Task: structure prediction
Amino acid sequence: MAVLTEEQTMIRDMAREWADNESPVTAFRRVRDTAPAAMFDAQAWQAQAEMGWAGILVPEEHGGAGMGYLSLGLVMEQLGRNLAATPLAATAAAAGAILIGGSAAQQAEWLPRIAAGDLVATLAVDEGPRFAPDRIGAAVNGGRLTGTKAFVAEGDGAGLFVVAATDGLYLVEKGEGVTVAPRHLADARSHAEVRFENAVAQKLDGPADLVTRAADRATAIVCAEMLGMAESAFAQTNDYLKTRVQFGQPLSSFQALQHRMAKMFTELELMRSVVEGALEAIDANRPDVSQSVSLAKAVAGETLRLVSSEMVQLHGGIGMTDEHDAGFYLKRARVLETMWGNAAWHRERFARLSGY
Amino acid sequence: MATAPEVEAPADPLEAFRAQARAWLAENFPPALKGKDNSMSAVEGPTELNADEAAWKQAMGEKGWGVPTWPAEYGGGGLDRAEARVLAEEMGRIGAWNPIGGMGVMMFGPTLLEYGSEAQKREHIPPIVRGEIRWCQGYSEPNAGSDLANLQTFAEDRGDHYVVNGQKTWTSGGQWADKCFALVRTDKSKKHEGISFLLIDMDTPGVEVRPIRLISGSSPFCETFFTDVKVPKANLVGRVGEGWTIGKRLLQHERSSLSGGGSTAGRMFLGEPISSIAKRWLGTDDQGRIADLDLRTRIVRHEMDLRAFLLTLRRAQLEAKSNQGPSATSSIMKNVGARIMQERSELLIEIRGLAGLGWEGEGFGEEELKDVRTWLFGKAVSIYGGSTEIQNNVIAKRILGMLDHQ
Result:
């Protein structure tokens, strides 16, 4: 655990308590089974907004908490532990982009609504099934955006899209010229194909590398969710091994399993360091943000893959059943591993940024 | 929380100490020695000290700053943690290094300060502080490696002294050591409780040392044979049968020094990155990538692993300082440090091809020859000080609360 301020410790403890008491995995299961149109837990999202989480990144003058990415990450980690199905990650990523690139007027227009939890927003970059920020076809002519974005997280419920076009990021409100078609992935969360046809678009000015900076921040937020998922998957597996008896002994007494758990624990410790490192790099606005984020996503992706796979394997048959939660972690894990670049993509970028 | 967080000493006294340390170092550190750290000689065998080295060692020994936080009453520096940090900063600033090292400093001294009698501390700590006495470790035996408590070297009680018979092995630096801290059996009827912690002079009649030649060609370890070796009772540390407890405590010091505060990995990080060595040997393609793309991928993985390791070390240090409760990270550091060191060596061989496997003689660079020996000796890192498998047992049982097999 990074060294936290009193405020950060408070928000983390609050998030943990809320996730454990108000949003256990059964809450996610209910969302999956009832499949609401927006594909998220509206009640939980409202509760999160009331606690101020929708505006963690938003400055106080716009009704937010004015805290940083590490604080947001602490909350996302707790939500990840129990697979809480709310649009916090997507909305915060969009808010982050507006904070970097938005004019004073744009910030005043959108951020208060985001902080209040009245507006779900999302960052739409990819146009195919894999992260490829260098291959963008969406284009703006005369203030109108045309193009199609694939697998947009929380696209079903979003009222505001922050869209990557050939020449930067644009704000597009849901409405005329915007068509949303759900894409049901294995994780039972919201992903949608969003088609823009001459949709009214407002440009976010800001630095030339705005898309990269926005994507890096979105990636770091997802890494924090992955950290929570991996920790919880690991803890549940460890508990199970202590209770499941075979050959007259708890499974946890078998050395073959002990060493697999020790190895996973080791990788988890490294994962926590790199994820917190990326969030801290963003908060400090360090020049190596992109490298830190690639390090975090590559390590997080591989570690979560390991832990989520082992969760199913070490639970044996019960882990194969829909009744058990292991499958939820496995399915969500692969989605997050892929989103914003898989481990291979981030290793490639890390090498390039390091000059080799 | 009831207890106040540790308060940093006010800036002024600390800055006063900084000025004092800076002045003393300027007066005593010979500039010719800047960056010429020979502290590994404590492990690699004695080297002839030149006049500057001898003077520097004597100055640091008398000042006690080779062991800055040890109590001043036994010759140590008597500094608090903040002062020791300032001293390290000031030494780093001018390229000064610590000439006082070895097992006495890393393992035995801290343990004796905790468990030794007043007389034992007065006798043994000052020579360690001055770097005069070399200690070696008598733990492992041919049939007591990972299962250390199976050790059989027997110390028979003969009233005012013990008579020791048995064999130790993997005695680091045994051929150069003056004294040995050993785990011996004083009771054959109990496994762990039958072990005691005994100090043995290496020049006592009946002690015989034979160096073991390793795959790296060097002989840093020995077999040590004890035949009717007479050891005074005054050399028993702690109580009879307390050896296992004391010995384990010492291993904690060993592990923390092996994980090095990350010093080995830290040095690697400060040295030439492996990616740039690869670029030099293999060249790059038209996109500036290391020409062997498969190797390049494994180099990225390795460099990421190293970064993650260093970030984890930093996190462990910060957590320890801010007192956010006990951190579990230290227990994994040895395993990860070993894997990173070994992977680096393997990658260096792949990068250099057969030139990376030169054993001796003409046709090889100094770096290549050194790295081959490091590669081979580095295989020991995941075996000594509690093998990777033993560390995994520790993680599983002590941290994850997994159970013993019945």
Residues 1-7, 260-265 of chain B have pLDDT under 50 and may be disordered. The beta strands of chain B are 135-138, 154-157, 161-172, 179-185, 195-201, 207-212, 221-232, 236-237. Chain B has three domains: 26-101, 135-241, 259-399.
